[in-house]
Design goal:
Order of helices and strands: HHHHH
Distance between the termini: 18 Å
Structural class: mainly alpha
Strand content: under 5%
Number of helices: 5
Largest sheet: none
Length: 151
């Protein structure tokens, strides 16, 4: 579907997919970093190394990629007619809801990294390991919605 993007459509779609891959790579890394950070002794050199790694990941990959995913994704959604009331886009509404949840998880993980940097652990290692699985579950559902378009 070309729509309002014209011949730029495949380029916008390709860029969207590329930045989704970058964002998800970061979303798989950061929770694992949080587990290792939490296992380090608070205030230790190792804990400080994890703080630096988490900050670099956030500033260089996670947040820029998420912003670009949202911008490009909304352009693609507009191209499909999301904002003009085109029928048959239930899958896209659901996908956007899941991306909002994933974005919220991103924010939570960044916030928890900041808590750990301040020496405040509020979760157990087991809880963190369980939360590590959330991005994989969400991205699996998102990909199924985009490819299968079940509704």
């Amino acid at each position: 579907m070309i729509g309002m993007l014209g011949t730029a459509y495949p380029w916008v779609k390709a860029a969207h997919i590329i930045f989704v891959i970058f964002w998800m790579a970061g979303m798989f890394m950061l929770p694992r970093y949080l587990v290792y950070h939490q296992e380090a002794a608070p205030g230790s050199a190792e804990a400080q190394t994890w703080v630096e790694r988490e900050n670099k990941l956030r500033k260089m990959i996670l947040t820029p990629s998420m912003i670009l995913v949202w911008i490009l994704g909304l352009l693609l959604a507009a191209n499909l007619g999301l904002f003009s009331g085109t029928p048959g886009l239930g899958w896209l509404h659901t996908k956007l809801l899941l991306v909002v949840v994933l974005s919220g998880y991103h924010g939570w993980a960044v916030g928890y990294a900041k808590k750990l940097a301040a020496g405040k652990q509020t979760l157990t290692g087991k809880q963190l390991r369980m939360l590590n699985e959330l991005p994989a579950i969400l991205v699996t559902l998102i990909v199924v919605l985009v490819i299968v378009r079940p509704f």
